[in-house]
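Collaborator request log, item 7. Partner lab (contact: R.S.) asked for a structural prediction of Sulfotransferase family protein to inform their binding assays.
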Amino acid sequence: MSQAQVQKLWRQGEDYARQGQANAALNAYEGLLAIDPDHVQALLRASRLALMLGRYRVGQDYALRALARRPSSDEAVLTLARALRMFNEPGALLECVEHSRWRERRSVEWLTELATLVSTVGDNALALQILDVAAIRDPKHAPMRYFRGVVQMFFGDMDAAERELEAAIARQPNIAQAHWVLSRLRKQTAESNHVERMRAQVGRVTPGSENEAYLAFALHNELHDLGRYDESWQALERGCWIKRQLSPHDRLDARRMYEGLMRLCDADFVRPVEQPPAPYVPVFIVGMHRSGSTLLEQLLGGHPMVSDGGETYAFTTQMRYGADYRNKGVLDAELVRRAAGVDYAQVGQRFLERSAWRAQGKPYLTEKLPTNFLNVGFIGKSLPQARVLHMVRDPVDTCFSNLRTMFSDVSTFSYDQHELVEWYGQYQRLMAHWRQVMPDRVMDVHYDALVADPEGVMRQVLAFLGLPWDAGATTLDRAGAVATASSPQMRGGIIKNRASAWSPYEDRLQALIQGLGEYR
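Returned to partner:
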């Protein structure tokens, strides 16, 4: 067939897509690809449409086929990089970046977005290199300066981070995320804070917007440091109210998910499938967000036999592939429903293969996405060699820390005290279930004990994992990026005797405190 036929099918696909006729559009692109298999834009369009139609595996296959064609235009490279990030294919994303000739690109916007995508898969050193090129292209570009500040924070250079964030705000005062990150870099003082500047910005953003939420959480952080607790609480309440409107929590789906997990994952179900010997031992660090999982991973990463792999959706990605379904977050009720028919040998092998680059040749790899506690039964079934470390922290400390953290698009339960209590109870019951059906695979690690006696607790942890003792697993004195909400706290050693941050708000937290009473 002629090039004219290719162009006709392309126009048909574009027209159908604009009209919202996804099936017809996908059929047109697939017809085009039957004629011209190297048409990168058609591959990328087909990938997006297949995902919209619930065909997860097909969508991923189209994205990987596009990667093999080595797209070169700015638009195609970024579209492919976004798709590979969405499918959580970090190795493929880094391959895409490697072949993109990013050092030759001129657009600071393009470079900044590419650096952001690279950072989300854990390669912050490469992200910083890309941002260095972007800074040469346009040193005054505010979003670039903002993200340079974020990456500098990940690397623990708080002074450099502050300079970058201030430069971003000087150029673009309404860049709300920069105010929020700045509020977390250090403890604010009466002599040095940003409260009035942020209050001025609140009046300039759209009420109820994500930008107002960032500023509200930032004001809460700084006013809390200043001991102005009434004002701090008002800011926190406002931020939580906005986030709850923007990202409502689906309580019914959560209940169905938890019930389905405990019904499906009995002792027979979680019995491991047969697998060939694994090249490394995956160590999953799970629990509630803000329970100390980053601290534990950083300590383990000091052991010469452990690669600290960071916080990824690598396991959930393989569950999505096995179920041919893209859920929201780590798990939902529909993925649990489909889980009975998943090939768990395939899930385990794909996880090991696609995470091998993070292990860096070491015999142990940590994966510290806290909400993998939902996946523990599937992890136990698909990865016989895997071990699970469950971080346990005081319920009120943990839940209040969740309440005052502005998450991106996860932890939608964390902006309301009643929903937070309900989720915490569901989590506790599920962890009790895992201990019952997998008694030798899960170890509780208590945060208070860990900070009080790092050596004593880490000796127990290493013994559970089958690792020899090494004093490197008791300190935080290591270089490298920490790309989590706990990044500022991972510098300067283990913090002991930290006062309960919630105590100044005790009278306002009665729903939380009373609701968590049975778990304390």
